[in-house]
Design brief:
Length: 362
């Protein structure tokens, strides 16, 4: 082949390369890679809920062999914690990791996809989502904000709170200033307490200064790290307000639909794996921290009295019934939740609850 022909081919090839570059079309190997931004509602490196976001991002990257890479931004790094849904909805971020009850101001039905007073345990909730139609309800709700949601972690049953005095009667709740947001806060408000909304970083100082008399946060593991036991020695468990706390990975709907099926499956499976990891991580670390709080720090463990719990159950039902009337969708979700809670209760009596009672009582 002559040098003249080679030169012509070389020039044509160079021109083609220039055309590709100028048109913005990337080479094939680059086209197979996606770079996504995830915002979160958690402080950077916060144990459990915060590190779950980093963990699921690494899972997706490993499963896709680097074709999907997710950069995680903690709360405040790209947007504020309570701006995460808006960021994903508008496309300024691709994904968020957080707790969907933070979006109850946009739609009260979002409470059903994190937790609610006297609600489902983590196992019950995930069963409803996966097999009881919960995911379809969630998709319907989140699609209004251009989001595809997945369960991506769960703290399990949370604690009832830390108190500077014993709570023995309903009168002890009257005037009590307690950090408890959301529907749980509304329940204690109707019991006479004064619910206060504070971020995690504000709680200790507020307890120390006397601005609040009690607080709930998550459970022994995270609560011990915040040092609540140093001021409030009366620990109550379990928490009626958050019998589980599902974490969400929400992805922009346009981004989700643009992913090839294999990449969608990587995200779905990574969320399932992360949910199991976070649930067991919390169960183990809470058990260890619980003993440390008792044996090392002298924390007194209490249960709420039957009279208090009777009142809590009644008021919780009232609050949820009111929530169910906020929209036609909320009504359908609540009906499904009630039906499945009754179904799960009947089986749990003869499964986990029955076995634990048998093991405990001999």
């Amino acid at each position: 082949m002559s040098g003249k022909v080679n030169r012509r081919k070389l020039l044509v090839g160079a021109g083609s390369a220039g055309l590709i570059a100028s048109s913005g079309v990337a080479p094939a190997y680059a086209q197979n890679k996606r770079r996504l931004k995830m915002v979160t509602t958690w402080p950077k490196n916060f144990p459990g809920v915060g590190t779950a976001a980093e963990s699921v991002a690494k899972r997706v990257e490993a499963m896709s062999e680097g074709e999907l890479k997710i950069k995680v931004f903690a709360a405040g790094e790209l947007v504020g914690a309570f701006e995460a849904l808006d960021a994903v909805s508008t496309g300024s971020a691709d994904l968020y990791h957080g707790a969907d009850y933070y979006w109850q101001g946009k739609d009260p039905a979002y409470n059903f996809f994190t937790t609610w007073p006297m609600g489902m345990t983590a196992t019950e909730f995930y069963s409803w989502i996966e097999f009881g139609g919960g995911q379809a309800f969630w998709d319907e709700l989140a699609s209004k904000f251009k989001v595809k949601p997945f369960v991506c972690g769960d703290t399990g049953t949370q604690s009832g709170g830390w108190f500077t005095k014993k709570i023995e009667t309903l009168d002890d709740l009257k005037g009590l200033r307690m950090r408890m947001p959301g529907l749980g806060g509304e329940v204690i408000r109707r019991l006479g307490a004064l619910p206060v909304v504070l971020s995690g970083g504000e709680i200790f100082q507020s307890l120390q200064s006397g601005a609040i008399d009690a607080t709930e946060w998550i459970g022994p593991w995270n609560d011990q790290a915040f040092g609540f036991y140093q001021i409030a020695k009366y620990f109550y468990a379990p928490g009626f307000h958050e019998p589980n706390a599902a974490l969400t990975l929400g992805i922009n709907l346009d981004v989700w639909e643009s992913l090839k099926p294999a990449h969608q499956e990587y995200i779905r499976v990574a969320c399932q794996a992360e949910t199991q990891r976070v649930r067991t991580q919390y169960f183990y670390n809470n058990a260890v921290a619980f003993q440390t709080l008792i044996n090392k720090h002298g924390v007194e463990v209490n249960n709420f009295s039957p009279k208090i719990m009777d009142a809590v159950k009644k008021i919780s039902a009232d609050v949820l019934n009111e929530l169910s009337q906020t929209s036609e969708l909320a009504g359908r979700i609540y009906k499904s939740v009630q039906e499945h809670s009754e179904l799960f209760n009947k089986w749990s009596l003869h499964a986990d609850e029955g076995y634990m009672r048998m093991r405990r009582d001999g």
